[in-house]
Amino acid sequence: MSRKASFTVPGLTEETGHQVAEALQLRLHAMNDLQLALKHAHWNVVGPSFIGVHEMLDPQIELVRGFADELAERMATLGVSPSGLSGDLVANRSWGDYPEGRADTQTHLRAINDVYTGIIEDHRAAIAKIGDVDPVSEDLLIGQTAELEKFQWFVRAHLENGSGEIK
Amino acid sequence: MSRKASFTVPGLTEETGHQVAEALQLRLHAMNDLQLALKHAHWNVVGPSFIGVHEMLDPQIELVRGFADELAERMATLGVSPSGLSGDLVANRSWGDYPEGRADTQTHLRAINDVYTGIIEDHRAAIAKIGDVDPVSEDLLIGQTAELEKFQWFVRAHLENGSGEIK
Amino acid sequence: MSRKASFTVPGLTEETGHQVAEALQLRLHAMNDLQLALKHAHWNVVGPSFIGVHEMLDPQIELVRGFADELAERMATLGVSPSGLSGDLVANRSWGDYPEGRADTQTHLRAINDVYTGIIEDHRAAIAKIGDVDPVSEDLLIGQTAELEKFQWFVRAHLENGSGEIK
Amino acid sequence: MSRKASFTVPGLTEETGHQVAEALQLRLHAMNDLQLALKHAHWNVVGPSFIGVHEMLDPQIELVRGFADELAERMATLGVSPSGLSGDLVANRSWGDYPEGRADTQTHLRAINDVYTGIIEDHRAAIAKIGDVDPVSEDLLIGQTAELEKFQWFVRAHLENGSGEIK
Amino acid sequence: MSRKASFTVPGLTEETGHQVAEALQLRLHAMNDLQLALKHAHWNVVGPSFIGVHEMLDPQIELVRGFADELAERMATLGVSPSGLSGDLVANRSWGDYPEGRADTQTHLRAINDVYTGIIEDHRAAIAKIGDVDPVSEDLLIGQTAELEKFQWFVRAHLENGSGEIK
Amino acid sequence: MSRKASFTVPGLTEETGHQVAEALQLRLHAMNDLQLALKHAHWNVVGPSFIGVHEMLDPQIELVRGFADELAERMATLGVSPSGLSGDLVANRSWGDYPEGRADTQTHLRAINDVYTGIIEDHRAAIAKIGDVDPVSEDLLIGQTAELEKFQWFVRAHLENGSGEIK
Amino acid sequence: MSRKASFTVPGLTEETGHQVAEALQLRLHAMNDLQLALKHAHWNVVGPSFIGVHEMLDPQIELVRGFADELAERMATLGVSPSGLSGDLVANRSWGDYPEGRADTQTHLRAINDVYTGIIEDHRAAIAKIGDVDPVSEDLLIGQTAELEKFQWFVRAHLENGSGEIK
Amino acid sequence: MSRKASFTVPGLTEETGHQVAEALQLRLHAMNDLQLALKHAHWNVVGPSFIGVHEMLDPQIELVRGFADELAERMATLGVSPSGLSGDLVANRSWGDYPEGRADTQTHLRAINDVYTGIIEDHRAAIAKIGDVDPVSEDLLIGQTAELEKFQWFVRAHLENGSGEIK
Amino acid sequence: MSRKASFTVPGLTEETGHQVAEALQLRLHAMNDLQLALKHAHWNVVGPSFIGVHEMLDPQIELVRGFADELAERMATLGVSPSGLSGDLVANRSWGDYPEGRADTQTHLRAINDVYTGIIEDHRAAIAKIGDVDPVSEDLLIGQTAELEKFQWFVRAHLENGSGEIK
Amino acid sequence: MSRKASFTVPGLTEETGHQVAEALQLRLHAMNDLQLALKHAHWNVVGPSFIGVHEMLDPQIELVRGFADELAERMATLGVSPSGLSGDLVANRSWGDYPEGRADTQTHLRAINDVYTGIIEDHRAAIAKIGDVDPVSEDLLIGQTAELEKFQWFVRAHLENGSGEIK
Amino acid sequence: MSRKASFTVPGLTEETGHQVAEALQLRLHAMNDLQLALKHAHWNVVGPSFIGVHEMLDPQIELVRGFADELAERMATLGVSPSGLSGDLVANRSWGDYPEGRADTQTHLRAINDVYTGIIEDHRAAIAKIGDVDPVSEDLLIGQTAELEKFQWFVRAHLENGSGEIK
Amino acid sequence: MSRKASFTVPGLTEETGHQVAEALQLRLHAMNDLQLALKHAHWNVVGPSFIGVHEMLDPQIELVRGFADELAERMATLGVSPSGLSGDLVANRSWGDYPEGRADTQTHLRAINDVYTGIIEDHRAAIAKIGDVDPVSEDLLIGQTAELEKFQWFVRAHLENGSGEIK
After folding, report:
1. Could you tell me the domains of chain J?
2. What is the pTM of this model?
3. Which of E114, E121, F14, L154 is deepest in the core (most CB within 10 A)?
4. Does residue H83 register a pLDDT over 90?
5. Chains that touch L (3 or more CB pairs under 8 A)
């Protein structure tokens, strides 16, 4: 059964609308993988700064889960069936599992910083690609990027010294 | 008495600001007519799926009423008096009354789907027209379009089959 | 398709129930027009007392929208399909559009006072007519009239002087 | 021990007050039986529209439980001990148990529609009887009838077709 | 300066509207005196059942203060200036101060029971007098009477024995 | 039509699951009868300690109504149609109506104490019987018993003297 | 029966404690009269600035009612029965009724300003008198004075011009 | 780096505690996969009953996400590092991806019913295995199973007919 | 390790600040012992007035726990380590355990009255001692005393007769 | 006066019920001592990680205070008077005061870890002892143990390194 | 120490990211100065329309404080240390202090109108400058501008006459 | 235009009242500068303990902004126009800008500790000066000092070692 419906949003051609939707599928996989990785870190972080980092992750996880929801419902709105399944995610992602298990806070924060750099670059690439044809999807991605970048600042602020160098 | 004030928002010329505002007047009429039509459907829908559709409409009506408020206050901000009156609405709209009275859920959902297609196309046309001169009004319309398109997906999801065809 | 169903509320004859419902249709149009006119005033009022009057209108608008909902759902309960559409409203009302555009607070309050006088007289006439046959619909209209009269006092209190004369 | 106290509300004779209270006892039994029957339906409804009907019943049950409370406390206020016991209810009611067990939504809605017709007729009869002597008790019953009739409309709207015929 | 304005509510003659308002003035004084007396009892009650009675009075005081507000605003709506002043109250009331100072709970409850009997009789008399000309004011008084009677039941339930005799 | 479905919860045989469900039916009748009896006491209690006992009963009634809901939905989950009807309750219970009408607080509390002793013994018997085969249903009954025993302590604490004897 | 109990707060002699309490009685009467006068003004104010002044009074009334409660419960705590009755108030106050009926906002605000000047002077006098013997009662009065003075500023800010002169 | 810490909960041997934790790992993977599959269905369901099923899934997803959290934090408490990563999940699960894409409600509900049967059987097996050594982990799994079984009833109630057969 | 830090609050000498803090240590022990004694009474009170007294104690316990927190954090602020431990409390207090076990309400209220007399006298003595050097700590103790005295009034009001004698 | 009442919960013999209650007394003392020790740590912790640890303790203290309440009310329910007094606690406990005063976060966390190990071992021993005779008390202790173990994990996570060793 | 970190947001070059951040510094100073000026006006406004204007400013101040927070955190996210200090603000701003002290409402509203014209022009200039390189920062500024322009309309609506001329 | 009005609070001479107000102006500047400095630190803090310190500052900033509001409104109440402007602040303060930019948590906490020492000394000096003439302003400053000192303890607790020495 085709993942593409016989319609898209009014004002876009069916072909354009479906292309925008297809471009969002990997963003959806990225958000689903990110919520899992952040929860995993939430459970596995240890060390003297445990409680602050443990608690800082939960509101971000809520946000990221909401971003997955936005992306998937936007795909459906554009007329393409979204995939939110783990097997499909693992088969199609261009990255591997989050690399840390039980580890201290700074180790986890460094790993999370790396994850965010990749995700934000991809979000910005999607903004550039989609922006010309669908300002609604573009606006959705810009809003998500703003929050992802702000959280990366939270992470980096733990790693930074007074000179602004990431240790 | 002139509907245009002797000012507009800082950074736009008075003429430009007033032109943007004028372009919003029909969008305001559309939102006012839409809130009435959705309430009308809310009261007149019948059949075995009554309760789900009846309740699904109310949050959307609240949203649309808020959109009318945003548009009218944006017009006033830009220096043009907004009209929110029923006689003015009926005299100036390019469409007729919502076509259904008491009818089953699928009949109403099909009629609502048609209404949304028209409204969203007009919103997208206004975005294209206004975007170059006033990013603030553009952003307002993009945000409304996103919600209108999402609700249209809710409506279409009732009409769709597994192959993505609207029945 | 007939607007009248093959039933009405238990305890009333079908004919009586439908007559009561028909009597509520114009009350419904009046409430729908009133919510639009009050919002219109909310957007168009200007002058040194702007903020107080601008904010005083919103809770009343919420109330009036709720009154429209009550009336329409009562009509449906009595077995007659309610009409909440703008074209139908304009075609059947016995009054014209609210007369003011951008104007100062006292001008708007005087116009609103006039609107309320007409609406309350019609509500009281409907109470007198319906009261003998359906105490439930009567009670609904009495409750609405109490609130409409109280708001009219708010409006008049702005126009009154210490001697109780409307200026 | 007598169920009647040596007082009633001020402004009514003791005999009149107690007669009004006695007239409320069967209304109390009806409300107690109705809350049980609606919960029973809530648990036993099945079929593709399960979730909507299952959830629609709960707020009504809360309301009906509140109506029983109002009626019983009004009886006590009027000076007569109210009975809220199941054995007394079953011994004195003029109707039998709700007729359905596990059944699909339309079957349950049809049965509920029948139950409401009986209850509302009896409420309206009590209003007619009590209204001349105690406007406070009358007002209480009118308020309950309004809500019961509105819920019956919810039920009927599931059974109706576009022509307003109950299927 | 005249207490009567040059208007009343639409649908009533000025003379009738003002007569209804005048009839509400003593009800307003009664509510103002009642809120003071109940607070006085709240502060002066003593004995082993102190806490239950002390706390039972506060929600009723809130209600009675709201009743005074309703009555006064209804008077103003009907076009007569309401008086809420203590000197005017004492000069015009037909009753004296609440008779108890520091006393045990049963003594206070007996005194409150007597106060309520007088107030409710007067409320019912006003309902009878006003009901024919102004259903809105009548409805307001019926609603207040229902609550006052219910609270009197609370009071009486403390004084009653199992045979329904007030001790 | 059979009360038993063609399924039960995964991990239990259909026969076992249905037997567990059948064992819950009388517990459901007991909870339904208890909510009615407690409300009846709530309305009929009198005397100097009225307010404390009157108010103490309501949160327990809410809890017991929730217990009935849990039991009935557990039965449905296990594949047996639950009965929540008054006639069925009265025909199948092994006890009679609650014995008190209007009476003072200590009389009602003694009667409630007796009711709870019976209900808790039956709940504990059901725990013993069900515990070996279905830990989920057992856990549900243990949780309810804990709350029922805690409320019985509230009741007994009114009847106890300093030596721990029930008067 | 004596208004004085056979105790006062620990750490004060019975005579001192009762003297402090007596000094609070007139403050209690002042607060009770003030809540009535402010509500009276709330109902009788008219003119173009009606809504702002009408709404500004209500939170202050809530506060003043709370101050009466604090003073009365402090008197009881100190072992003297507080009087909150209207007849006693009128017989013992050193001031007359609030002088205005229906009047415009500035007239009412000027009258309220005068009332506050008197009340605050008396509160400050009581602070000076009580402060040496009971820091707890002193602290209570200081807290009330702070709020009364702040509200007087609200009132005066309406009457002031840019030079700080009360017009 | 070892996933096992040098401690476990007090009262269990380190070996036993770690074995219990290991047994929870697959339950954690199952919950993580279930939250993804339910969201996937939430996005892909279509047809006339869309809105009811779409909304019914979200509270369950919240619950299942909470269950994953409980399980992972219990593993950490028992001294074993939990894995919440998608690659690890897919490599170790004994089941495949949820089988449906865009499809009507009954198709999705049938697929979800199958998923729950597998998960509940595995939860019950874990209860049986763990119950003898760690009542705390047992209690956690019983509580989760109760909720999973209740939701499966919701699903089945859509598929059942009046005879209790799953269609 | 010294309990005194090398600092105190700005504006006080280190010696003075530490002396104030030391004076608060026994007040802290008193509050900790009081929260335990009040909970003990909450659990052990019996008799016909059980529920009112049982529930009256809980908000006071919350308050007293907050007072302990305020005192301890004030000590830390002043530069002295506070002790909140039971052994230290028992070793340093000048009073014994609360004297009652299971007992009726009046017995417990008399015992609580005695406890409060002692605690309030000590609080007032500390106010007198500290007031000259640290107005911040003085203000904290005055605020606590006000609440403790108010609650003692609640207790005494149960024991008082109409003549103000404690029975 | 005997601590044992002449009753216990229905379904247990008086002797058995009282034995279960006696076994809970030391658990109650442990919870009371734990709330005091955790607050003491909350006030005395210092160092660069102060704020996280200071704030992490408060929700746990609330929980532990609730556990004391549950245990004491369970004892009363089972018919034995609970002791919550400090002198009794110190005289009967098998442990000494918490060993730390002002100290850095890691020192406090190590001490708290030790305290929890002792308490949890005793709770598990009580579960084993009570479980055979009273599933209700067993369930209460299991629920408390789950939370105590989870908090100990929070504590340990601060002390652990990536290899799972407590430093 | 350099204000610039060794990173910026992913997808921008470090140089570009830092330039965007630098452009936001003056917007941050403007927002900080605006919150101070609006509070200053809130305190210094006088005259008959005092209360409406006094209260209208507070929600705007909350908003503007949030805008400062957004801008500063965006700067930090982009890798440049934000300055929020008063001395730095005064040294670097291109405008002077707000010109009014105590003055009537129209005077303050005219001064605020002027302040907003300057700020909005600068915000729009920053949007034009930043929009090409960083859509995230652009979106943030557009959102702020929308709110600032809407509030300026509130201000202007007080100054406007019916012809739309600012008086 | 004079900053001094022709009035002050009742009970103080105009001269005294204005002197008290003048003494509060620098306290107002200090609070305004403190809210800016704390936000600046909130944005510029970095290092492994980032999140705890970042979040700890926000509630204090809210409090300090409220203190500025209290002081300014107290000045207006006393009849002197308060200045809340940045230029005026910088010209009149006796201190310089907060000394840190981007820096680690301990550096910022040490700088904040120094700022608080200065502010609290000045607050205490103002209390000493004002206390004799205006207990209301004194009480306001005492309340603020208590909170400022408590927050300084939070700051110091991060800098302290177990011996109570600030590192």
Report:
1. 14-159 (1.20.1260.10)
2. 0.97
3. L154
4. yes
5. A, G, I, J, K
